[in-house]
Amino acid sequence: MKLYLKPGACSLSPHIALEESGLPYETEVVDLKTKITASGADFTKSNPKGYVPALLLDSGELLTEGAAIVQYIADQAPAKKLAPANGSIERYRLQSWLNFIGTELHKSCSPFFNPASGKEWKEIAAANLERRLGYVNEQLEDKPYLMGEDFSVADGYLFTVLGWMKFIKIDLAKWPNLAAFVDRVAARPAVQAALKAEQAA
Prior knowledge:
Layout: E1 2-5, H1 12-21, E2 26-31, E3 36-37, H2 43-46, E4 54-56, E5 62-64, H3 66-76, H4 89-109, H5 119-139, H6 153-162, H7 176-186, H8 189-200
Parallel strand pairs: 1-2
Antiparallel strand pairs: 1-4, 2-3, 4-5
């Protein structure tokens, strides 16, 4: 498998999932402005959407969208318990978390990285983030990870998005459970490996 990524972007989430899974994989960095990959290929030829993450499977098929990619990875390494079994209510709870992180947290960060966004748009997004982060903080009150005792692919995604808060001047210190969660996830060897690889890319 090959993961197309941009260091620091949301592609860190499947990168973490791949490290956690122990599956063999390679990565290729994409310049999202030029749409050219590190090997000089036109990224839009393989992924017309033009953004990361994208996972090239050994079959030659390309899988896009982070929530789908991380579940695919988890299902290739079931012994790692990165996702509950398909068809179980817990699996739907995982999908609920992935959707929440994607639509309520990830997308609310977009205005801060878009030069065209105005002050009002950013203020609305910041207020939404404050509410949503408060909710997640409450959910982590009595458990180490979103799904309970076991780390899941949703935790890798949440960790990725929370990492952007320092860039948009939102201090996680006001939500102690979130701050502790970030430290807990950052200490995982697989997460450290993914971060180190992206820093070197």
